[in-house]
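[agent] plan:
  1. take the single chain provided in the ticket
  2. run structure prediction with default settings
  3. attach structure tokens to the ticket
  4. add a short note for the reviewer (M.T.)
[agent] executing step 1
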Amino acid sequence: MSPATPSEPSGRERREFYRITVLLPMCLQMAGDETEGELIETSVNLSAGGIGVMVTTPYKSGDVLSLTLLLPDQVLFKASIDVLRLDPLPLLGGVSRLHARFVRMPAHDRELLVRYILRFQRDHLQEHYSA
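[agent] step 2 finished; step 3 output follows
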């Protein structure tokens, strides 16, 4: 497989990626929706294999969505995600936790995401553990 070939990690491989929860401007839309969605700051559980986020839209397992994240330094990151499941959060009325994996992601995009996740971790550790 060439380095530019999109790859989809298995469930086991997705769990091997480091995860971090961070506030990021984000937009989720159905794949193919050409309207310009609004970036809204959201708490995102992010890894190089997938994403977890709270949503109010009733997506279904198997839906393919277009994800846009605004990373530090104003870097727009766009990817396709496959909805694995939605877990309703009854105490929050109409809110669900969306679990999704990245699909058709080129290796260089995955590497970019890994670099930013490591940067988030480094910044977090410096903020909380520096003298």
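[agent] step 4 note for reviewer: Residues 11 and 89 are 24 Å apart (CA to CA).
[agent] ticket updated
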